[in-house]
Amino acid sequence: MKREPFQNFSGIAAPLPLKNINMDAIIPAPYLRTADADLAHGLFALWRYDDQGHEIADFILNRPAFRNATILFGGENFGCGSSREAAAWALKRFGIRAVFAPSFADIFYENAFRNGLLAGIITHETLAHALALISDNPAKASFAIDLSNITLTGHDGQKLPFTVPDFRREALLRGDDDIATTLRCADNIDAFMAHDRLNRPWIYETGMTP
Questions:
Q1: Sorting pLDDT into bands at 50, 70 and 90, what band is 206?
Q2: N or C, which terminus of the chain has less Cβ within 10 Å?
């Protein structure tokens, strides 16, 4: 299956460099109880709103400079905790297209790519540099992402590297989901099956046509 290919872009980056941001914080459980919940509204809801549902002014995504953020800088072990794919959905529906952090929890990391969300691993030094650029001039908290060359560039012009598995990068650039990525190997799969059928015919003696 195809989705929109990932295009290089520039966008506002919001800093949220907390360690161990878990999926319960990214998308709280009440937003998972119905199929039509507003996941964009639910993103970081326990941090964005008070008990009366009013915005908490000093939360980063409620600040005027970062309301339209499309990039997020997080801390170590981003996306840990319970398994919920809706964490990636919520980020995307809010408008976040890429998250950068020194490390990610495994389940969130895989869910991100499967939903077309770039999860780039950066060094602590790169994170500190990016945060300093944002802190020095929040009005210029924009970064350019070049996925083809695996770099992001802030307003100082310095190219900062990040890492992403090659097959995930290529799938994002093509707009392939996991099914489309697998189908690209269809000829190899068919060749293996034909060879395997000759060498282990008993495996296929089920009375069913594969």
A1: low
A2: C
